[in-house]
Design goal:
SH3 type barrels; Alpha-Beta Plaits
């Protein structure tokens, strides 16, 4: 391929797929030039074989076998380059986006024709072959419209009489909160009987998608919910075992027995 053809191919490729990175452009032109050379050599070889009287069936068989062998030899490379085309045309993510693909997570730094470089959260570069994006789902949190707040808040069984008022007050709090998207679902309900607690679900969406701002809003809402719970005279539950004495039993004897058990356990630990 001469200089004029190279320049023409470069201009055509730039117009066709809008290549901006000079290294990617040089690499793609080099690959296209090699493919062009291979095609020209194959056609020239076939033409010479025809001139020397080789049957066309034998030529077709030979070229078919060579094509199959070449396809197998370059299968992985071809997949990565074709996937690179897919990324440039479909744009499932852009440089600067935070993505997650097959548990490979980080910020996209460079989208190349063969691989994509991302920066993981521990600041290490990670080079991912483009074929991985063709065979795995890609999660792009940067395309979110909202961020979700979802929490299950455990209250004591003694607070069963107050949980209805608590859910109503928390729901009202979220419906009036300036950072909560009112066009999305806002759910606050007593939704579960647990082993040692009754659980209240809080479900809503923030207007912001920025992680840091979302964390600040979530913390503020959690503290507001804690204030609502404490104002109502309720309290948060924790894993525990409650012993209820049988009717007619001596509670003092039970307490003394429990104290002796605790002392025995302490002495064994010591």
């Amino acid at each position: 391929m001469n200089v004029g053809q190279t320049v023409l191919l470069s201009a055509s490729m730039r117009r066709w797929i809008h290549i901006e990175d000079q290294q990617d452009e040089s690499m793609l032109i080099n690959v296209m030039s090699r493919l062009y050379t291979i095609v020209v050599l194959v056609i020239a070889t076939a033409a010479l074989m025809v001139n020397f009287g080789v049957p066309s069936g034998a030529i077709a068989t030979m070229l078919g076998g060579a094509g199959i062998g070449f396809s197998f030899a370059t299968q992985q490379i071809s997949q990565n380059f074709l996937s690179g085309f897919m990324l440039f045309f479909n744009r499932p993510f852009r440089e600067g986006d935070w993505i997650n693909a097959n548990n490979l997570e980080g910020t996209v730094e460079k989208i190349g024709w063969y691989y994509t470089r991302i920066r993981t959260f521990d600041r290490r570069p990670l080079y991912i072959p483009n074929s991985l994006f063709a065979t795995n789902p890609i999660q792009n949190p940067g395309e979110m419209y909202n961020r979700r707040i979802l929490a299950n808040i455990s209250l004591r069984y003694e607070d069963l009489g107050t949980i209805n008022g608590i859910t109503q007050e928390v729901r009202s709090l979220l419906q009036q909160h300036p950072d909560i998207d009112q066009s999305q679902s806002i759910l606050v309900n007593f939704n579960e009987w647990d082993a040692s607690s009754i659980n209240m679900m809080v479900y809503c969406f923030t207007k912001t998608t920025i992680w840091k701002d979302w964390l600040d809003i979530q913390q503020s809402i959690f503290l507001d919910i804690a204030a609502v719970v404490q104002r109502s005279g309720a309290d948060f539950a924790f894993n525990c075992t409650t012993l209820y004495p049988a009717p007619g039993s001596d509670s003092n004897a039970i307490n003394q027995s429990l104290n002796r058990s605790d002392q025995t356990a302490s002495s064994q630990t010591a």
